[in-house]
Amino acid sequence: MSIPLAPIFLGSQLVVAVVDGLPTVSIQNTSKAAANVTSGSSIQQDIDLCMSSEQKARETMLKEWSKYSAADKARCVQAQAYLPSYVEGLTCLEMEAIVRTIRAEDGAQQRAR
Questions:
Q1: CA distance linking residue 91 with residue 87, whole number of Å
Q2: In tens digits, what is the pLDDT along the chain, a chain of 113 residues?
């Protein structure tokens, strides 16, 4: 049985794109969809708040992009996901860093015993 190579190469190129630089996502689409399910006072206010949060998260990710591991970038930043979000990506990256720190501390405590 042969495995087609095109999907394998395409998949690896997508990961490289995420690892090499922060992908651009349409935060407008994500914010509009989110505003349609919230119960805020106005859909436009919800969209504006979402857009502001997404832009701040993107700026933080750009500033700290080189600090994140390639594996974390590939796992957390999913530009091809349905309604991708910089806020979700940043949260994931921050959680990965916290988990790594906790595991390192636990390992140090285990070795100290």
A1: 6
A2: 444 433 333 333 333 344 458 888 889 988 988 888 776 668 888 899 999 999 999 999 999 999 999 999 999 998 787 888 999 999 999 999 999 999 998 887 778 87
The DSSP symbol for 1 reads -
Question: Nearest Cα to 86, choosing from 77, 98, 74?
Answer: 77
The residue whose two tokens read 């999907």 is 7
Residue with token string 């930043």? 77
Of 15, 16, 83, nearest in space to 54 by CA? 83
DSSP string over 56-113:
HHHHHHHHHGGGS-HHHHHHH--TTSSS--HHHHHHHHHHHHHHHHHHHHHHHHHHH-
Contact in structure between 57 and 3 (CB atoms under 8 Å): no
State the pTM of this model.
0.71
- Residue 64 corresponds to which tokens in the numbers above? 């700290």
Both tokens of residue 113?
């015993």
